[in-house]
Amino acid sequence: MTALAWLIPAAPFVAAAVGLLFGGRWPRLIGPLGISGTAVATLAAILVAGGTPHGGPPVEHTTQLTPTGSIPVILGTRVDGLATTVAIMVCLVALAVQIYSTRYMEGDRRRSSYTAFVSLFTAAMLLVVLSADLIVLLVGWEVMGICSYFLIGHYWEHDWAQSAAVKAFVMTKLGDVPFLFGIFVLGAEAGSFRIGDVLAAVGDGRVEHVTIATLLLLGGVVGKSAQFPLQSWLPDAMAGPTPISALIHAATMVAAGMYFIARLYPAFAASQATLTVLALIASITMLGSAVAALAQDDIKRVLAYSTVSQLAYMGAGLSVGAPDASMFHLLTHAAFKSLLFLCAGAIIHAVGTNSLREIGGLRGSMPVTFATMTIGLGALAGLPPLSGFFSKEAILNATEHAATSGGAAGFFTYGQVTTVFDAQPQTWAAWLVFLTALLTVAVTGAYCMRLWLMAFIRTEVVPETGDLQWVGPREAIQQGPHNGRPAAATREGGRHAGPSAETTEGVDSPRASESGTVVPPAESAMHDAPPAMTWVLIALAIPSALLGFFGLSSSGVSRWLGDTATAAVPGLVVLPEAAARFTPAALTTVLSLTAVAIGLLATYAVWRHDPAGDPADALLGRSRTWVERGYGFDEAYDKTLVEPTYAAARAVLFIDANVVDRSVNESGAGARRLGGVLRLLQNGNVQTYLAGVLIGAVVIALSVAVTLG
Amino acid sequence: MHLLYPLVLSALLFSIGIYGVLARRNAILVLMSVELMLNAVNLNLVAFDVWLGDRLHAGQVFTLYVITIAAAEIGLGLAIVLLVFRQRETADVDALRDLGERQYEAALESDRAG
């Protein structure tokens, strides 16, 4: 069955190719084509997972296309428990997004390319997940980058979409450059780009510069997974359609970074320096972006910052030697974050605005969205028994273990290769990660509570700032972007209720809330999204709630996810207690539940005090604006990087025009002027020429006579 | 006969020829001056041939050769002069300056514009 693995990335790729070529001609086929490509991949992934021997060595099916002359590049799949589990997750989320998009994007004029790019995006992610070769993995990695560029820039008529797309592309590329060199270092020193060979070489100690290689790779991971200091592209990536946000945040792109570390975990674990750096990055990102999420006004930006924060949790788990716990969190996060984004899409769809200030009291009018989003937020905050609780608990448990035992999370013993692997960061870094993670649990609780209260519970909406003003519905519609049209109005007008007609006008716009319109919560006009969308929400709510319990079984997810780390290296033995590592431990459970309770109750108390206001104002005080703008990172990057680059470009232009060009032009003009002097001799009088010849001959004759005589 | 006399004579002839080539304005007279120079050389060749007593008389051979070439050359030259005169009704060497650099400034201007 594992031989079918090639079909998993190939099916969506074919769907993408056919969609790009013929999508414009047969618009009816677009939706079914996208769905069927992903569905075939899902089926194949499930079949492959059924045939994967868990706990054994990874199964590879490879073929070498052509000899390259040096280190061979092979085309093939490397199937183990981790890869198949993540592949199934990617396929399911992509399937949900495709189904959801059939309604959400209905009528959009670029729908065929949109669907094709979603398929291509999925195919690229699956290639990253399954590839047996680092170079082929890099291909998928980069294809994802370009797909994210196209999809974030879906509404390219608008400046903000263009700049967000370019920003996402450039910032991830910034990390991809070191990533490429990291692959080269590993490949050159191991003599092979095959993941299996590379890991074996690391195990034998043949890779000398493993710290340099993994730090370079970490650069790519930081860019792709939007970690500090390359985090600021992800909130801006909200410029794309909401299903794309769900896809990028839950299943592809950002997950690829963390998955890559888990895939090459023995290499990362061989360098204590890399793990320490990862721990530092994770700590900074985790807390910083959670606080930023608390301050955001745009509902999608709240979720974006929470994604950054949750990815940092995975990074934290990876840094303390718990790749399986991290990947478990990756899975649960994929479930609840895609659910949250699609819920947010349903809200935006119904209300017509992203701004939390302007929406409220949706509990009554959108019951399905309310229920599913409550489950999603509960999972995000880590409330038992929802899935997020178990996965976050597993990571917290591992960090606590690493901090207190002053070493590895301690579930793996490395047999004869103990000296090579110290899967632990510095002890202080472990403590830092553990304490930050606990603190972040509280902040996570706070922003989940704030989002929930503001969107669903509060019934009064007061325009707070002066530049917001009431605009009547008629004028609002004429204003174009983000009008206050109730969804039902368009439906009754014979058109579907999707944002399709307005999508190109920026319903998804992260700036839409700045256009100065206040949308009153007209409850009678709002209700849940159409069935294709609500069913997806319900389908995603189930794993969001229940996925955690799979981690408790010793033969289940926990065992599969440990595959890469254990089976890749000869002599690596899984201790029996590893099987039970996703079971919540008493100490960390109490601590994290206390922390989340503090966060939830503090926010609730603040809200009770001022039911119409925004709890973030009271919680963050005067620093809120600064935090809301992402700590001024964009401004700082503008000042320190963008402006100097422009200045340097202007200097280069000046030098080019005034030094390079001028020297060329002047030397040409100078030669011409010199030639002009010689031209004066050519006066056309033959006798003058002859006189010259004669004088020359006489001079030559005289000089010969003088020198010889 | 002393060698000096023919040499002085030939030098005088050559100088007159050079003067004619450089100073005369009529193209016919320029050609005639060229003939003078050639014949001065011929005189030199014959004189040295006698003075050296060359048994092969290479000097005389060269002289005959030069006379032949000169005949051909003058034929060609006169033909050119005839054509020039037909075209322009003048045989004044000073007036035939079409290949001169008279349009230098104009050419420079057109280059700059282009």
In the residues of chain B, how many domains can be counted? 1
Mean pLDDT of chain B: 88
Radius of gyration of chain B: 20 Å
Structural class of chain A: mainly alpha
Mean of all residue-level pLDDT scores of chain A? 75
CATH architecture of chain B: Orthogonal Bundle
Number of strands of chain B: 0
Shape of chain A: elongated
Largest interface: A-B, 14 and 17 residues
Radius of gyration of chain A: 31 Å
Count the strands of chain A? 4
Name its key features.
heterodimer, A: 709 residues, mainly alpha, two-stranded antiparallel sheet, two-stranded antiparallel ribbon, 30 helices, elongated, B: 114 residues, Helix Hairpins
Overview of the structural elements:
The complex is a heterodimer of chains A (709) and B (114). Chain A has 709 residues and is mostly helical. Helix content of chain A is 68%, strand content 2%. Chain A is built from 30 helices and four strands. Chain A has helices at residues 7-22, 30-51, 81-104, 111-130, 134-152, 159-190, 195-204, 210-224, 233-236, 242-251, 254-263, 265-269, 272-295, 299-319, 323-351, 362-365, 367-381, 387-404, 427-457, 473-478, 487-492, 500-503, 531-550, 557-561, 563-567, 586-609, 615-620, 624-628, 633-679, 686-708; strands at residues 59-64, 74-79, 412-413, 573-574. In chain A, the strands form two sheets. In chain A, strands 1-2 form a two-stranded antiparallel sheet. In chain A, α3 runs antiparallel to α23 (531-550), α6 packs across α7 (195-204) and α13 (272-295) runs antiparallel to α14 (299-319). The longest helix of chain A has 47 residues, at 633-679. The N and C termini of chain A lie far apart (104 Å). The model of chain A is unreliable at 408-422, 463-524 and 564-580 (pLDDT under 50). Chain B has one domain (4-113): Helix Hairpins (Orthogonal Bundle). Chain B has helices at 4-23, 27-52, 58-88, 104-113. Chain B has 114 residues and is mostly helical. The model of chain B has no long low-confidence stretch (mean pLDDT 88). The termini of chain B are far apart.
